Amino acid sequence: MENNKRPESMERISTEALAKSFIDEQIAAVKKQVGDKKVLLALSGGVDSSVVAALLIKAIGKNLVCVHVNHGLLRKGEPEQVVEVFRNQMDANLVYVDAVDRFLDKLKGVAEPEMKRKIIGAEFIRVFEEEARKLDGIEFLAQGTIYPDILESGPVKAHHNVGGLPEDLKFELVEPLKFLFKDEVRVVGKTLGLPDGMVYRQPFPGPGLGVRCLGAITRDRLECVRESDAILREEFMKNGLEGKVWQYFTVVPDFKSVGVKAGKRSFEYPVILRAVNTVDAMTATVEDIPFPLLEHITDRITKEVKGVNRVLYDLTPKPCGTIEWE
Ligand code: XMP
């Protein structure tokens, strides 16, 4: 029976010194567990999988095989950042899989939110499984499971990233962060030298921008979501709101409205701004974005994002609105 209870004697990792000794302990533990065998990791670029990757690169170097699946639903610049940080800077053994067309083809015409989620999840497992089968002799699977995943999953074993792999792919799990809370994971990540943009990033749903491009996903609207989200994030960073607001993003619905652009009638999509604060995501309040900043963001989005002629600000707390729109 696997031990899934955080040891009572374990000190809260709040400083670099504590993180350093945690990292040393985990490096020794991982080396002992896997020896000179190879370990596979699905590296999304999110906080948890990135910290696991950085830790295991220190422990076993090229024997860690990171697989980054670009499903086309990531934020602007994210796949590039994964390649830059892990392949170029940390010299990781990184397999980059461009699965954009594959995911978007599967999602074509699917409007029902839960069906979209199911397709994205199932396709992710299929792509990852195919990559795993190409790599011979891998016995270990690293996962970015953290303590809240274990607490929330009760007696069922936590599968943070790639639960659902077929039975014949029997991997032994390597879960070095499984007793850490999120704030501790961030201290460890910072100590391992990961960039702030990776360590302190806001929560991002597994299905990514797929649930923010409402209804049946189309490539043009998906680009509207990605580009408007990038502008919102840039403006939040410039105005000191990054790190202060819990989650902020844009949503693009699947209808158009009439506007005027350069003296001509336009018929284009609206972009909805969402910015919320919460402790546990069960309830949330709306961030009071200063009006001049809202005006500036609106101006930039309507000028810079192709196919958009209107910007709306969602003032709904949770309840009764959820944080995401789908
Ligand atoms: P809601 O919309 O339910 O969101 O108020 C609460 C938090 O959960 C995130 N979220 C998801 N995360 N897969 C995820 O990994 C999902 O399908 C999903 N749906 C919502 C959401 O971004 C928010 O932080």
Helix content: 25-40%
What's the CATH C level of the largest domain? Answer: Alpha Beta
The CATH superfamily of the largest domain bears the name HUPs
* Strands, total number: 10
- Going by helix content, strand content and strand pairing, the class is alpha/beta
Shape: globular
Cross-sheet strand order for the largest sheet: 3-2-1-4-5
CATH topology of the largest domain, which one?
A: Rossmann fold
Instruction: List low-pLDDT spans.
Output: none
| Total number of domains | 2
Mean pLDDT: 95
- The appropriate CATH architecture of the largest domain is 3-Layer(aba) Sandwich
Elements, N to C (H/E): HEHEHEHHEHEHHHEEEEHE
Nutshell version of this structure?
The protein contains 10 helices and 10 strands.
List strands and helices in order, with pairings.
Layout: H1 16-34, E1 38-42, H2 47-60, E2 64-70, H3 78-89, E3 93-98, H4 100-107, H5 113-134, E4 138-142, H6 147-152, E5 172-174, H7 182-191, H8 196-199, H9 219-238, E6 247-251, E7 257-261, E8 264-277, E9 285-286, H10 291-304, E10 308-313
Parallel strand pairs: 1-2, 1-4, 2-3, 4-5, 8-10
Antiparallel strand pairs: 6-8, 7-8, 8-9
The structure holds xanthosine-5'-monophosphate.
Overview features:
single chain; 326 residues; alpha/beta; Rossmann fold; GMP Synthetase, Chain A, domain 3; 2 domains; five-stranded parallel beta sheet; five-stranded mixed beta sheet; 10 helices; 10 strands; 40% helix; 18% strand; binds xanthosine-5'-monophosphate
